[in-house]
Amino acid sequence: MRVSAILPAAGHGTRMGREAARRHGGDRKQFIKLGGVPVLALTVRKFLAVSSVREILVAVPEGSQRAVESMLADVGGHTPIRVLVGGPTRQESVRRCLAAVSPGTDLVAVHDAVRPFVPVDLIKRAIAETERHGAVILGMPADETVKQVSQRVVRATLPRERIMLAQTPQVFSLNLLRKAFAVASREDFKATDEASLLEHINEDVYVLLGSERNIKITRPHHLPIAKLYYEEERRESAAVCGP
């Protein structure tokens, strides 16, 4: 089974803010550094550790392609890493990467570039489940009561046991995802994640329990948690490798 990993990294980082990003070594959230290593490079390393991933496609802001190629030149591993210019939206960035995946690809794993702490075993499980089901995402149960709101007024309380908070990677059959993108393009349907495109064409998307560590670094208050997880992973890696 040949898997192509797509990492959309072309976002502007408006929720993080340029000033907060610069204080941590980058001008956008995906280029922030933890322990001197860019978040994007940490995320790429997780997919380099998965043998079924045969290529990694990274969508980046226009004008940063060469800088990112240089940044990722030393991440290690033998898996090819291709840096492409992304689009103005996540959907467009992923569409451009889909058009560029190598022949012979069976599955596509789309993962937020700013989720560097996804466990490698969880990536492998998501891929294995997609071989059976065709479309799999990670998700976490909601811990708090969820309200549906319109114009600042509560309209309904949603059953918490039916709510899942979506994570990535989201893994799909390549043919199925391309079909969903084709319909979305034809109908001008916009979505915030790839699973929504599958839902739009009435395809089942299965949910695999995610991880509390699989945080998305999007706001300044996420950075202290990210630093903690980075240090934990560094210590764990050192313990495995030995002195």
Mean pLDDT: 92
| Element-by-element helix/strand order | EHEEHEHEHEHEEEEHHEH
User: Percentage of helical residues?
Assistant: 25-40%
Rg, rounded, reads 18 Å
Which SSEs are present, and which pair or pack?
Blueprint: E1 3-8, H1 18-23, E2 33-34, E3 37-38, H2 39-48, E4 53-60, H3 65-72, E5 81-85, H4 90-98, E6 107-110, H5 120-133, E7 135-141, E8 146-150, E9 153-158, E10 164-173, H6 174-187, H7 194-200, E11 206-209, H8 223-241
Parallel strand pairs: 1-4, 1-6, 4-5, 7-11
Antiparallel strand pairs: 2-3, 6-10, 7-10, 8-9
Helix pairs in contact: 6-7
Quick summary:
By secondary structure, this protein is of the alpha/beta class. 36% of the residues lie in helices and 24% in strands. It has one domain (3-137, 166-241): Alpha-Beta Complex (Spore Coat Polysaccharide Biosynthesis Protein SpsA, Chain A), CATH 3.90.550.
Attribute tags:
two-stranded antiparallel ribbon; single chain; seven-stranded mixed β-sheet; Spore Coat Polysaccharide Biosynthesis Protein SpsA, Chain A; 243 residues; alpha/beta
Give a description of the structure.
- The chain has 8 helices and 11 strands.
- It has 243 residues and is of the alpha/beta class.
- The strands form 3 sheets. It has a 7-stranded mixed beta sheet, sandwiched between helices. A two-stranded antiparallel ribbon has the order 2-3. A two-stranded antiparallel sheet has the order 8-9.
- A hairpin with a 2-residue loop joins strand 2 (33-34) and strand 3 (37-38).
- 36% of the residues are buried.
